[in-house]
Amino acid sequence: MALYGLGIGFQVESGVGNDPWNAFHQGLALRTGLSIGTIIILVGALVMLLWIPLRQKPGIGTLSNVVFLGLFADAALWALPSPGHWAVSGLYLALGVLSIGLATVLYIGAGMGAGPRDGVMTGLVRLGLSVRMANWVIQLTVLVAGWLLGGTIGIGTLVFALAIGPVTQLFTRWFPLDRNSPDRRVPSEACRSRTTP
Fold this sequence. Notes:
Order of helices and strands: HHHHHHHHHH
Number of strands: 0
Shape: globular
Structural class: mainly alpha
Largest sheet: none
């Protein structure tokens, strides 16, 4: 959760574009006056309501995701200085992708429950959608909503979308995922196209 929060902080502070979920979180934060971390917590809790009709079961990792991800994101945003140069913005973006890629592998590898947002995707997969289609539907929906709300969309959004899958896959070399475990199979496949916790 700390790595996820740090990655979100780097991404938002870079100012060059967020992944779809964090564009949505940022847009809601701008509209409500609440911190991005508070919005992440509230959205995570609301998204879990969708788990009921999808018959998803949360784990301790799910619940800790709802509570701690937003707290760590706010801490990172508070601690990170704003970049004063485009090169620093690029470095922040790269560090954001690396942090979130590593966090994804560690989180999935722990096998303690999908994140609230990923649980919706795996629930849609169980209803018959492919991982790719479920991911695209969700990501496109929150990306458009984030853009309409004023979240930052830009070159960083594209870089993140293209880089997060390969970076996450790279980290599996050092932290292999157990692809035979039923509760890890769908998320490990999804990490190739994942764009947020």
